[in-house]
């Protein structure tokens, strides 16, 4: 009876460990996606600023 309880606890612990590992992988992937998105946002913002400044420069000529 006691061994059965121990096996049940070990099985639950293994499931929790597997779930934790999966969540850690998902977190890493989400961080990479967020970093890529941040870089793309900065690139687009810079391009829009440059385009805006070029447009203003053309208007002043």
From TrEMBL:
It comes from the Eukaryota. SUPFAM superfamilies: Tropomyosin. PANTHER family: TROPOMYOSIN. This is Uncharacterized protein.
């Amino acid at each position: 009876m006691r061994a059965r309880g121990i096996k049940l606890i070990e099985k639950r612990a293994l499931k929790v460990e597997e779930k934790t590992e999966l969540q850690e992988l998902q977190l890493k992937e989400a961080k990479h996606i967020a970093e890529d998105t941040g870089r793309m946002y900065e690139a687009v913002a810079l391009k829009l600023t440059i385009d805006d400044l070029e447009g203003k420069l053309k208007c002043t000529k």
